[in-house]
Amino acid sequence: MLRLYGSANSRALRVVWMLHELKLPFDHKDWLPRSAETRTAEYQSINPNARVPTIDDDGFILSESMAINLYLAKKHQSTLYPSDPQSEALVWQWCLWETDRLDRAIVNYVRHTVALPAAERKGTIAASAWEEVLPALRILDGALHHSTWLVGKQFSVADLNVAGALYRALSIDTQEWPHLHQWLLRCWDRPAAKIARAQREQ
Hints:
alpha+beta, Glutaredoxin, Glutathione S-transferase Yfyf (Class Pi), Chain A, domain 2, four-stranded mixed β-sheet, 4 strands, globular
């Protein structure tokens, strides 16, 4: 059975979502980032970065949530993974774009506006992060202006990976970008997404 190391309260959230989309049974080590469990020699023997998530798929070890989801969707021949090379490349494009343009910035913005206790929030960090988040949200909204999904005519691993990173955007008002707003609601309204979100918010 596949084993997942990593709490839904981390970037493992999108892996939990993917596993439920694929209806795969898995053994879940619900470990938070930087927890004591991730610092053991045993765990670092499979992930020297001491980070989560990591999967052990019958001895195949893989880390980085984007890569894990691409692997799982392709391995299980899911409709979430496109069969033609151009659509496949567009999936990669959006996943790489998200990690480069949005991931860290949206985390910092939400942390320093709503997530952290008020005394720990830093307005300068929030403002700097927003300067990066804003153009990224505009790009997403533009991409979704003429298309329901990021790649092709159906929900794909590109939507899952990017919307998974935008879990934190559910706590802010995104109605200024109506196409993005509706897409985000569609993604998180999926049954597998609701399961993953419930695990994070329990």
